[in-house]
Amino acid sequence: MNTESKSLPYTVGAVAADAGTRLDKFLSEHLADLSRSRIKTLITGGHVHLSGAKVTDPSRRVKSGEHFEIFVPPVKPAVPAGQKIDLEIAYEDDDLIVIDKPAGLVVHPAPGNPDRTLVNALIAHCGDSLSGIGGEARPGIVHRLDKDTSGLMVAAKNDQAHHFLAEQFAAHSLERAYQTVVWGMPGRKTGKVEGNIGRNTRNRKKMAVVKRGGKRAVTRYKLIKPVGDWASLIECRLETGRTHQIRVHMASIGHAVIGDPLYGGKDAKRFTQKVSQSFQASVSELNRQALHAYLIGFIHPKTGQKVTFESPLPRDILSLL
Question: Under CATH, which number does the domain 177-293 receive?
Answer without folding.
Answer: 3.30.2350.10
